[in-house]
Amino acid sequence: MTAATPVSTVSTRMPPGVLALAVGAFAIGVTEFIVVGILPAIAKDLGISIESAGSLVSLYALALAIGTPLLVIAMSRLPRKGALLGLMSVFLAGNLLAALSHSFEILLFGRVITAVAHGAFFAIGATVAAGLVPKAQAGRAISVMFAGLTLAMVIGVPLGSFLGNLFGWRLPFFAVVLLAALGLAAMARWLPTGLPQGAGGKAATQLAALASGPILTMMAVTAFGFGSSFAAFTFITPILTDITGFSTTTASALLIVFGAATFSGNLAGGYLSSHYGWQKALRIMLLALAVTQVGVALSISSQWLMPVMLFIWGFFAFGLSPALQAGMLSTAERYTPKAVDFASGLNISAFNLGISFGSMLGALMVSRHLMAASPWAGMVAALLALLPLAWLARKNLASHVAGAGAH
Predict the structure, then answer these.
(1) Minimal CA–CA distance to 5: which of 192, 198, 273?
(2) What is the CA radius of gyration of the chain?
(3) CA distance 295 to 307
(4) What domains can you pick out in the chain, each with its CATH number?
(5) N or C: which end of the chain has fewer CB within 10 A?
(6) pTM for the model
(7) Who contacts 260 (Cβ-Cβ below 8 Å, separation ≥6)?
(8) How many whole angstroms separate alpha carbon 93 and alpha carbon 181?
(9) What is the CA 35 to chain-centroid distance, rounded?
(10) Residues 80 and 195: beta-carbon distance below 8 Å
């Protein structure tokens, strides 16, 4: 694994480098999810349908999924700090293009540029965050980094949605450009300069991870599990306004409820992963997420119940993140030790293949006037994620038993 020497084997304080990564993750989190809050405004301004505007989420995720592993390979021998600063610079440029765009095509192009930088940043950043702390704290370090993304859900996305719906959808993109500049400054200041170059092998060695059954299985867990929420979440603003009956302003405010839940869930997921192991943490979270999405479907018309269900939903949906990433790092260290960064990139791809598939499924349901039923699709996907997780658990147990027998 690409890692710096831990500062201390006993300290539980997070190194400032991990916090710097969280600042960059905050900027990225606002960009990824801000479209969800201003989707109707973009559709109206650019003269496109709501389901077409939804492709700004699904195609962003698809570009991220395809581009991330390729870019991780291309950057595998670069110094980690320089790679992360370069990726944040490209991310800034893509958002500036989106902010200045006056057509759907240019906006989409800016989003694609942003997406590719986003994925590689999290793939490399997750391994760096895990390497800056003692091994037992890796899950917690990853959760702190991802807390930047989820904090964006609490503050950035609701505020950006409110201002974007009030003053024009381009304003949040300009705000993200400033956030990206802050992220650049934080990483330049706080990331250790002694981070080694990537430890990945040749491209062929890393690409071999694509033929690893356990790696592909872990990707399936991530794609089904994390992606399960996005059939409904991509269209959460029209759901809250057209089905639940809230005003656009109230819908933007309710994103704070969801965002606060994602922040809490992320920290809880990091705790569960570090204390009970990532496999048990995922089993608990996936079952809870499936049940929760049933609750969302049954509460979708209630202005009293929906805010409560939004919180519970956000808690479990994003509580999966630390355990999913810790699971991939653990799986890669066991089965493809020369391609850990690349495997981390593949898992970022899996997150976004799930988002893309979920968003496309949601768009299909919207086009067929089934928007209110979209949480049921999420329930099915969350349960499906338990199948590859069970296979991987058996594989790991067999591997452990075989290794113990050899000794």
Answers:
(1) 192
(2) 20
(3) 12
(4) 17-191+198-396 (1.20.1250.20)
(5) C
(6) 0.75
(7) 154, 311, 314
(8) 10
(9) 15
(10) yes
